[in-house]
Amino acid sequence: MIKVGKSDLLWNYGASFMRVASGLIVLPLILRMLPQEEVGLWTVMIGLNSMVYLLDFGFFQTFSRSVTYIFSGARELKAEGFDPIKEGGTVHYPLLKGSLKAMRFFYAGVALMFILILFSGGYWYIERLLIDFQGDKMIARTAWYLYGVLLSYQFYTYYYDGLLVGRGLIKRSRQIIVLSQSIHVILATILLISGFGIISMVISQTTATIVNRFLAYRVFYDKETKSGLLRAKAEDWKKIIKTLWFTAYKSGLANLSWVFTNRMLTVLGALYIPLSAMGSYGITKQIIDITYSLSVVWFVTYYPKLTQDRLRNSLDEVKRIYIKSQFIAFIVFAVMASGVILFGNWGIKVIGSSTPFLDRRLMLLFFSASLLEAFTYLSTSVLLSRNAVPHYKAQTITALATVVVLMITLKYTGIGILALIIVPFISQLAYQHWRWTLMVFKELDIKLPDYKNFFRNLPVNLGLREKAN
Fold first, then answer.
1. Which of 358, 384, 398, 448 is the most exposed place for a label (fewest CB within 10 A)?
2. Measured between alpha carbons, how far is 450 from 439 in angstroms, rounded to an integer?
3. Is the dihedral of CA 312, 58, 299, 219 positive or negative?
4. Which residues contact 341 (CB under 8 A, 6 or more apart)?
5. What are the pLDDT digits (tens) for 125-157?
6. Phi, psi of 382 (to 5 degrees)
7. pTM for this model (two decimals)
8. What are phi and psi of 416, to 5 degrees?
9. DSSP per-residue codes, 386-453
10. Separation CA 289–CA 285 (nearest Å)
11. Do the Cβ atoms of 176 and 216 come closer than 8 Å?
């Protein structure tokens, strides 16, 4: 049985804090030590991460959810839906062994594909960006390709964290993240101060990733798991991939909407907007991405439990987790947005950065768009917990529409950075931001009195006071 306690939550917040620390500590150093063009280039390189989400094509969530099913006692994986599971189920190791083999083959194959893309299309892209680059082009190219190799390794081992979270080892997973992020922050700081420039970020992230993956492997493959896997005969991994593909490809198409309306914006924008302007957009987006991550930490921590509650048809508990997650997300955004909009520019001046934040009105619009994105993420995740992806077609259409409209807007208008915010916002608002929340409300029978009851018992629901007997 998967149990999630306060220690899991605290370590999850700790891991998120370390991600914040990498922004609040390393980012100011980047702004101070790197020229504005290199800040823009680093922003584009971070956007390259979106390739990972594209190439994963929904398998990470599907594999992680399958691990939860297996460790909850499932004897088989279904293409869609699931058989209810009673408490006390044991791990079916032949299914687990076959699933692990399927993960390794899938991620190894796609990581190789990523390398081929990097040294073909990636070559054309970086050379175009560097046409008017005033800094050291050789250093820029070296950083670009080394970072690409790092992303390939990250992708090959991408499922490691999914194994830990799917198994309910959230505390251990987050402890590993805290350690690896600490290594990243310390090493990046030392190298930046020592004058290694943009290469500092590549070296620090590479070291942190290797440590993260090594420890995740050691934690998942404990003595009991190794023994069970050793004795088991693996089920056909090809059959498992075929079964999971039915849901995974739908999740992958659904993820396109999030990728193209979030991660890929920087990559597309850099083709039409100067790197200096992209630097301002990039640092603002990093702060907003940090806010987004913090806003869903509680939900992500309890998601394996929510999935298990779905398996056991405990819909009242699913409803409680969902409503509480919405409340926490709103509070986090309200606090962070107020702080950044009111004091962000002052903070930038204090550290002596040559790269400013975006205009306050743009930041307010940016934060609002991201808050609705967080709410939609909560809703679609609840839908995914029942091993179905009803939103994939609509989100695929949204992704394609966003890219087409964004490219036209960037090419034929002069609104620049505003296009990177307003186009995806409107695209999502037209359908995604209300449709899936409405579906969750109907499935879980959520009504206004449910919110009234939540706020009436707010201290209890937030764990600030014990529930009365």
1. 448
2. 16
3. positive
4. 360, 363, 364, 367
5. 888 888 878 878 888 888 888 888 888 888 888
6. -65, -40
7. 0.67
8. 55, -120
9. TT--TTHHHHHHHHHHHHHHHHHHHHH-S-THHHHHHHHHHHHHTTHHHHHHHHHHHHHT--HHHHHH
10. 6
11. yes
Alpha carbon distance 247, 50 (integer Å)? 21
Averaged pLDDT, 76-101: 77
**Distance between CA atoms of residues 369 and 328, nearest Å:** 17
Mean pLDDT of 70-88: 72
Of 153, 156, 162, 154, the residue nearest 60 (C-alpha): 162
What are the tens digits of pLDDT across the range 270-301?
788 887 778 788 888 888 988 898 899 889 87
Which residue type does 262 have? N
* 223 Cβ contact partners less than 8 Å away, ≥ 6 residues apart: none
Burial of 302 (0-12, 13-18, 19+ CB in 10 A): buried
The string of pLDDT tens digits covering residues 225-271 is 899 999 999 888 888 888 888 777 777 777 766 666 666 677 778 78
Q: Token pair of 403, please?
A: 């890219």
